[in-house]
Amino acid sequence: MRVLIGDGQKDVGMSLATLVERCGHEVVLVAGSGLETIQAYARLEPDVVLIDYAIPRLNGVVAARMILAKDPGAKIVLVSVAPLPALGDETTKFGILQKPVELNKLYAALYDAASHPIERPQTTD
Predict the structure, then answer these.
(1) Are 59 and 82 in contact (CB under 8 A)?
(2) Does residue 85 sit in helix, strand or coil?
């Protein structure tokens, strides 16, 4: 699985990358802002995005919404040190992972995100 990581703290992003690789997956990039994560998603087309809620320049939820607006089938896991605010119906679109990230929980979150059915918009012919 190809994973894009978005975290504004370089050392935390690199630690997440190490954990993702220990899970047997490839890290395509560690982005330092929400905007950079959105741009990298379009360019690299990863299987899963692992993004920090508190990432600078568009927080994780805003960046996730923008990615999903362009690709409704995107697989996204939000990472947060604190409980996330109520996201309403959007909670079904994101995986959620609490910091500090434990290896077994990361493995499960990536697996769940990758195996989540893709929601495609209905089209009429």
Answers:
(1) no
(2) coil
Contact (CB, 8 A) for 12 and 52: yes
CA distances for 54 relative to 2, 9, 32, 39, 83, angstroms: 22, 10, 11, 18, 11
pTM of the model: 0.87
DSSP state letters, 54-71? T-SSS-HHHHHHHHHHH-
Q: What is the CATH number of the domain that holds 92?
A: 3.40.50.2300
pLDDT tens-digit profile, the chain (125 residues)? 999 999 999 999 999 999 999 999 999 999 999 999 999 999 999 999 999 999 999 999 999 999 999 999 999 999 988 776 655 555 557 788 888 999 999 999 999 888 865 443 444 44
Indicate whether 38 belongs to any domain. yes
**Is residue 122 situated within a structural domain?**
no
Q: Is the dihedral of CA 8, 24, 97, 41 positive or negative?
A: positive
Phi/psi of residue 25, each to 5°? -115, 165
